[in-house]
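Supplementary notes for students who missed Thursday's class. We covered one full example, reproduced here. Read the sequence, then the structure, then the short commentary at the end.
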Amino acid sequence: QVQLVESGGGLVQPGGSLRLSCEASTTFFSSSTMGWYRQAPGKERELVADISSSGSTNYADSVKGRFTISRDNFKKTVYLQMNSLKPEDTAVYYCKLTVIFSVVSYWGQGTQVTVSS
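Structure (token representation):
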């Protein structure tokens, strides 16, 4: 059973920064695509950023230039550095692992990010 544990969420003022972490309990982390998604109240879950096993990254237009996704395969952890945060970034942020050559995926439990003055 794959477990994903997110951490790092919280309350931050507009313009501030947070770093989210997601640690995976699986032996195939390094070959998996890792992603961060978010879901705001009343909205559908959306992709924020993802990173492939080779390190290729993809970002939603709304976060380009402000957020950076990275991974540490030794620690089996994916990170999301969020800078210049805006109130519209407020959401529950979820980590997702997608098994290579597969449609099988796993989700974390989510971590709340609130951007407010």
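Commentary. Residues 40 and 106 are 20 Å apart (CA to CA). The chain has a mean pLDDT of 96. If anything here is unclear, bring it to office hours.
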